[in-house]
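Lab notebook, bench 4. The sequencing result for the construct came back, and we need a structural model before the next group meeting so we can plan mutations. Quick request posted to the team channel:

Model the 3D structure of this chain.
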Amino acid sequence: MKNRNGIFWGLFLLLSAGILIVSQLHLITYTFSFWTIVATIFLVAMLIKSLVYFMVPGTVFSLAFLAILYAKPLHITAIVPWTVIGAAILISIGLSLILRPFLMKHHPWMRYGHHGGYNWHEQRGYDHNIDVKTVDESDVDVTVKMGSSVRYVTSQDFKQADIDVKMGNAKVYFDNVTVQDTATINVNVSLGGVELYVPRNWNIVKQIDNNNMSGISEEGKPVVTEDSPSITLRGYYSLAGLKICYI
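Done. Here's the predicted structure in token form:
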């Protein structure tokens, strides 16, 4: 594993140096911000690490988020972020199913152990590509890192949900919950996507901060009445997509 770590850091430093030199020499006509370069270096690091450790989802999602980051120069703004993220999920699952026999045969450490404290099955969801759970607590926590999760909330006294997504995708269904009066949904998304499925009678009060490379969309139309519960949607999303579906 030490050799793998050496390869990772060596390639990472070389590519980081290349990115910085190209950006400063203005060899590319399109102008990139400082934070775009920082995000690129981070994504390239994740891509190299995923390749070194044969992590299919990590490789696919790193490429997908690089595509989102450079959507304008690549002329693919029409398909970001949701089409790219959706395609990444399907490609990740498909490649994992196709390559799994080969990886298990030639890299048995994926089957039984850890590498650098990282458990392949538990963290990458190799046997369960999408993490699906039903929760009935009043306070709900959803954390996704380089993966996909689905949560069905069935609380009879829903008060708050904290959704934290980094380089992944989360779908949270609130259609079977009961809100006594008010509730809060906190969303923090970086390089990923979140879909919220909420009842039509919810009065969603948006208090969301985003940068210019993110998007928020709504599907369906709310039907708000005097008896509708007030749901405050707070948080921040960067290089990400947030979708509210009224069902």
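DSSP finds seven helices and 13 strands in the chain.
Will bring this to the meeting.
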